[in-house]
């Protein structure tokens, strides 16, 4: 997510239940109804015990407000009915799922819910006890503290919460400055490394060119000498003949 872009909702948690639901059938091999559910010999839908995943979330701008609990399969955009005339609703569903999906995948794989921002554990501005108190209000990151609204400040029972919000703002700004400075240093180091590599390549190229010139000048002198000796003996040769050919002609003439 782009820097400064806020998620639509904040995930509070997940849980799983088991329900009896009709199962989809194979239209080619099973008796199915008009919605594709499998039917038994009496024409009734076949039921099976299945896992049902649930998510509880709240608006990101009001983590202390009322929460909503829904079935995961009902809020997946892929599973929802897409209506071209309801583009605004579809965009809302996509944005909501974009905020929920990473946390859902982490929960399904047995990991802790990912934190979108700087975890409170990485901020020296709060103690472990203060961090636990903030988490009771679904405030899990330094960015959450920075973005606390006035109504939320009134409800959180910590001393000098407004001062804590100001400290969070300063911490994030300083962190951005440090990150920018680190990027500058890394870029300068990369430029110096590239310069050194380029200088080395130039030295290698100069050495190779000098070697080629040396060989070329030596070969030219030998060719001239062979041609001179052949000319003295009146032996004809092709003007593009190489050293080996001229030596062979000179040997024959001898």
How does this structure look, described?
It is a single chain. With 254 residues, this protein is of the alpha+beta class. Among the domains are: 1-114, no CATH class; 217-253, no CATH class. It has helices at 72-75, 87-108, 128-135, 142-146, 150-155, 161-233, 243-253, and strands at residues 9-22, 47-59, 68-71. Strands 1-2-3 form a 3-stranded antiparallel β-sheet. Helix 6 runs parallel beside helix 7 (243-253). The radius of gyration is 39 Å and the shape is elongated.
How much β-strand is present in the residues? 5-15%
The largest sheet has its strands arranged as: 1-2-3
What is the end-to-end distance?
A: 86 Å
Q: Which class do the helix and strand fractions yield?
A: alpha+beta
Shape descriptor: elongated
Give the ordered list of helices and strands.
EEEHHHHHHH
Query: What is the number of E strands?
Result: 3
Main β-sheet: number of strands, strand sense, barrel status? 3 strands, antiparallel
Rg (C-alpha, Å): 39 Å
Number of helices: 7
Average pLDDT rating? 82
What attributes characterize this protein structure?
51% helix; 3-stranded antiparallel beta sheet; alpha+beta; 254 residues
List the helices and strands and how they pair.
Blueprint: E1 9-22, E2 47-59, E3 68-71, H1 72-75, H2 87-108, H3 128-135, H4 142-146, H5 150-155, H6 161-233, H7 243-253
Antiparallel strand pairs: 1-2, 2-3
């Amino acid at each position: 997510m782009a820097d400064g872009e806020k998620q639509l909702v904040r995930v509070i948690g997940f849980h799983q239940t088991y329900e009896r639901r009709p199962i989809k059938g194979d239209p080619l091999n099973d008796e199915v109804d008009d919605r594709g559910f499998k039917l038994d010999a009496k024409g009734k839908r076949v039921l099976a015990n299945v896992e049902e995943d649930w998510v509880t979330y709240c608006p990101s701008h009001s983590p202390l407000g009322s929460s909503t609990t829904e079935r995961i399969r009902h809020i997946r955009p892929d599973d929802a009915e897409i209506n071209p005339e309801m583009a605004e609703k579809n965009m809302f569903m996509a944005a909501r799922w974009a905020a929920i999906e990473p946390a859902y995948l982490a929960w399904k794989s047995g990991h802790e819910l990912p934190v979108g921002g700087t975890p409170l554990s990485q901020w020296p501005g709060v103690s472990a006890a203060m961090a636990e108190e903030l988490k009771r209000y679904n405030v899990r990151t330094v960015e959450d503290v920075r973005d606390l609204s006035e109504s939320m400040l009134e409800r959180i029972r910590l001393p000098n919460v407004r001062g804590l919000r100001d400290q969070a703002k300063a911490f994030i700004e300083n962190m951005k400055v440090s990150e920018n400075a680190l990027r500058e240093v890394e870029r300068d180091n990369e430029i110096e490394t590239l310069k050194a590599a380029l200088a080395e390549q130039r030295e290698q190229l100069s050495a190779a060119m000098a070697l080629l010139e040396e060989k070329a000048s030596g070969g030219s002198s030998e060719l001239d000498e062979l041609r001179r000796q052949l000319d003295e003996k009146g032996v004809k040769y092709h003007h593009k003949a190489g050293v080996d050919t001229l030596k062979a002609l000179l040997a024959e003439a001898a």
